[in-house]
Every structure is written in C-alpha cells, then in structure tokens.
From TrEMBL, chain A:
Protein name: t-SNARE
Protein species of origin: Leucogyrophana mollusca
UniProtKB/TrEMBL annotation, chain B:
Organism: Leucogyrophana mollusca
Protein name in the entry: Snare protein YKT6
C-alpha cells in the first residue's frame, strides 16, 4: 500500500472539531498548535513527499514485475519474446537500483533531520520513530520486490533451458540423421564432457550430465551446417573459422561447466553437513532421555537397597520377638500339658 | 592417458613456425621407434601450429594421436601444442597450454626467440611429467576429486550416524524398561517394610 498523505484530512478534522467546540480561551491555544504543526509541516511534508515518491516507484516496479512474470511463465517453444523480456528485465533492474538510491537518500535525510533538531519532546520522538518506521517499511517492500524479481528470473532461466533442451532434441535427431563425420582430421572431434574423463554420472550425474547435453547440441548443430555446406562446396575457411570460434567457446563453456559442477558439489556437501548436524542434534535428545533414565534407575535401585537394609536390620533386631512368637506357637501346638501346667501355676 | 610431447613455438602469421622449446615422453615406444616417432611429432607439431590462426584453440586427431594447440599470438606470437593420446581430457590440456605459455613468456625474454637453441626452459619437462596424470595436476580436477572423496566420507559418516541412532533408540528402550523394573523393585522392597510391621 503506497504512502498516503492525509494531513489535509487531519487538518479538516481539526477545523471541524474546533468549530464544534468553539470555546474562546482555547481558540488561541488551538491556533498556536495548528501553527506549530504548520511550521513543522514544511520539514515533515518534505519527508513524506520523498517517501510517497518512493512508494509510487515501488508500486510501479511491482506492476512491471508482474508483467515480466507473465511473460516468463510462457513455456511455448517458438513464441518466445526474448527482446521484450530482456528489455523489461533491464528496466526493472534499473528501477530497483534507483529506488535503492532514493531510500538511501531518504535515510540520510532522516539522519540529517535528527542531527539538526533533536527535539526531546515526546512529539519529536514520535516523529523520529515514525520516520524510522517508514524507512524500514520501504526497505522491506523493496526487499520483497527484489526477491520476487529474482524468483521470476530463475523461472525464466529454467524455462529457457527446457525450451533449449527441446529444440536440441529436435535438432539432435535431424543432425544424427543427416550428419556423417568426415574422417577429415581438421573438423572437430566431438568429445566434450566437462571433466573430459568420461566418468560422468559417477557421483553427481546431475550437474555434469545436464551441462553436457546442450554443449553437444551446440557443436552438433553447427557441424550439421558446416558438414552440409562443406559437402556442397569444398568447405573453405569461413566455416573452419566458425568451428574454431565454437571450439573456443566450448573450451570456455567446458571450464564454466566444470566449475559449476564443483560449485554444486560444494553446495551438496554443505547440505550433507547440515543434515548431519540435524541428525546429531536429534540424537542428543535421545541421549538426554537415556541419561535421565539411568539416573532414575540408579536412584530407584539405591532406594530399594535402603529398604532392604532397613528390613534386614529390623529382622535381625527383632529376634527376641521371634522367640516370643515361637513360644506362643509351642504353647498352641501342644495345648493340653502346658495348659494344665499354666492353669495349675 | 599420456602426453607424448609438449612444445612451445614461435608462430608468426606469415606461416613459418620455429620450435622454441619442446619436451617429449616417448617411453611408451620401443627404442627403435622413438626416432621416427619424434620426427613425426615434430612435423605434426609444426604443421598444425602453422594452420591454426592466432588467438584460436584447436584440437586435431590423427591416427593414434590428438594434438591440442593454442595459438596465443599476442606480442610474442607464441603458440603451444600438446600431443596426447585420445583419452587425455581436453579441458585440462588447454589449461596446461595456457599455463605453459604464460610461464614461458614470463621466463624467456623475447630477444632470444630468434635463436631457438639458446633458449633454456627446463620447466617444460616438469610440466610433461606432472601432467601425465591430469587428475592430480589440473587444479579443477583435483578439487573435484577431493570433493568427491569428501562426499564419500560424509556418506559413510551419515550411515554410521544412522546406526548410532538405531543403537541409541535401542538403549533408550532398554533403559526405559530397566527404569520401570527398578521402580517396581523399589516399591516391592518398600512394601516389604510396611506390610510386615505386625511384630
């Protein structure tokens, strides 16, 4: 939502309230307050003007970005409009750079205002906070816009790659049908795997494999042209030159593919490390549970041992009670004689 | 994959090239073949360099040999050519050529170009020896190889961490069971004390 300038509305409100509650001693105060705000309005409105300009630019850039996203989403093979897309990309990039500069200027302006009149009043602090918040909001909006721009560019490169693969598929089939490698040693040899050692798809078949296909497509497409025309007219220098340029290109391309594969390997390694760290972190929780359990076990067993010791102590100290128990038993098991004995005694 | 020879030539665009420095490794040929192979290599080298325009890279196949040539031109009009077998990877070959040319241009002053026999560039021998195994010598390939080894090590590490996880789960179960049992043990012992206080 772009910045809206509502000071006029605010002033209208103030006017209407003043008219409604027209208390004479307060009019002077109210007038003073209005004058004050009007006086500071010069500096404030400068800031709000700049901020509103930036907001407008951001919204227009967002609209252009939406158009670019539409264009980039098209997956047709032949109807691609690269000129428009590149123009639009260029314009959006410049816009984003310009907005960045404007925001930086706004920020420095805010700092300048703060340095000039550091008002200790609560009103001044609110104004400062408000300015700061607006700058933050503009920056975050610009950040989201550039994020979406990057996403659109990624979608675009992906679609381009897909369409290139498809064209290469079609051209590849026609090339292999019509192409016959002349044994002439001055034509290109078609080995162009990036690492050059044929060990593709060893561990990361992804980056290397993908990097290989379009390259072959380039070379084969050109070979088809040159082969045809070389067979037609006894191929002269211009075609060899083109092949040489193509080889120069393919050397550089192969280097860049190799380095890209290294980069992707490193990224994979980074991911593996993160996964490793995750797994170890999960296991730490398990280890803590085991620890707690072991402590419980130790305390339980210790308590049980205490109880048993107490029991044992009570048993061993109660021995003379045991004698009493046995005495009672004997009295009851041989009743007649003892009963008589006791009765008599 | 082998390098048969590596040479630096002066290649003016007018057509006649002169060999400034060369080094070859013909150990794979029998002793009596070496002379003819060396002659053939020299001829092959000169011909291909003469037919490579300035500022271009080219690869030429010929029976059992592949020549990669880079004609750098520039102020010194140097060209470097490497003759290898078919399996030698292309990209490191060209990186080697660029490196050799830079080294040569740095070490050997241009004045001695007209007198090839006075040029001494022993590093060219070292290059041939070192690059017999391009995987170790070429920086990019070496880095890629080390990264692959690291990846293997990390895969093994993750497997062992998974096993550790399993064992830890096992331990947790057992410790849980033990804890319950020890609690029952404690309770029974306590009950013993409290229930038989009759006497």
């Amino acid at each position: 939502m772009p910045i809206q300038d509502r000071t006029n509305e605010f002033r209208a409100c103030v006017e209407s309230i003043r008219n409604r509650s027209a208390v004479p001693p307060r009019t002077a105060e109210a007038k003073q307050r209005l004058l004050q705000s009007h006086g500071k309005g010069g500096a404030k409105s400068e800031f709000s003007r700049m901020a509103s300009a930036i907001g407008k630019d951001i919204s227009s850039t967002t609209i252009k970005l939406g158009k670019l996203a539409q264009l980039a989403k098209r997956k047709t093979l032949f109807d691609d409009r690269p000129v428009e897309i590149s123009e639009l990309t260029f314009i959006i990039k410049q816009d984003i750079a310009g907005i960045n500069r404007q925001i930086a200027a706004l920020q420095s302006y805010v700092k300048q205002c703060n340095a000039q009149g550091s008002s200790k009043s609560s009103e001044g602090k609110q104004i400062d906070e408000h300015n700061h918040n607006i700058v933050m909001m503009l920056q975050s909006k610009l950040a989201t816009t550039s994020m979406s721009f990057k996403d659109v560019l990624e979608v675009r490169t992906q679609n381009m790659k897909e369409s290139k693969d498809r064209t290469e598929q079609f051209m590849f089939s026609t090339a292999s049908a019509a192409h016959q490698t002349p044994p002439n040693s001055l034509l290109l040899n078609g080995r162009h795997d990036p690492m050059g050692d044929g060990s593709l798809g060893r561990l990361n078949g992804n980056g290397k494999g993908k990097g290989r296909a379009p390259q072959n497509g380039d070379v084969l497409a050109l070979d088809l042209d040159s082969a045809e025309e070389g067979n037609a007219q006894n191929g002269g220098n211009p075609f060899m030159q083109m092949q040489l340029v193509e080889q120069q290109d393919s050397y550089i391309q192969s280097r860049s593919t190799a380095i890209e594969s290294i980069e992707s390997t490193i990224a994979e390694l980074g991911q593996i490390f993160t996964q490793l760290a995750n797994m170890v972190a999960e296991q730490r929780e398990t280890v803590q549970r085991i620890d707690a359990d072991t402590i419980d076990i130790a305390s339980n067993v210790g308590g049980a041992q205490r109880e048993l010791l107490k029991y044992y102590a009570s048993i061993s100290s109660n021995r003379w009670l045991m004698l009493k128990v046995f005495g009672v038993l004997i009295v009851f098991t041989s009743p007649p004689q003892f009963l008589v004995f006791i009765l008599v005694s | 994959m082998k390098i048969y020879s590596l040479s630096v030539l002066l290649a003016p665009p007018s057509g006649s090239s002169a060999v400034l420095s060369t080094s070859s490794d013909l150990s794979s040929f029998s002793f009596y073949q070496r002379g003819s192979v060396a002659e053939f290599l020299t001829f092959f080298t000169k011909t291909v360099v003469e037919r490579t325009p300035q500022g271009q890279r080219q690869s030429v196949e010929e029976n059992a040999y592949t020549a990669h040539v880079y004609n750098r031109g520039g102020a010194e009009q140097l060209a470097a050519i490497i003759v290898t077998d078919h399996e030698y990877p292309v990209r490191p070959a060209f990186s080697l050529l660029t490196k050799v040319l830079d080294d040569f241009a740095a070490k050997v002053p241009q004045s001695s170009f007209s007198n090839p026999s006075s040029i001494s560039f022993p590093e060219i021998e070292n290059y041939v020896k070192k690059y017999q195994d391009p995987r170790q010598a070429d920086a990019i390939m070496r880095v890629q190889q080390e990264l692959d080894e690291t990846k293997i090590v990390l895969h093994k590490t993750i497997e062992s961490v998974l096993q550790r996880g399993e064992k830890l789960d096992n331990l947790v179960e057992r410790s849980n069971a033990l804890s319950t049992q020890s609690k029952m043990f404690y309770k029974t012992a306590k009950k013993q004390n409290s229930c038989c206080v009759i006497m």
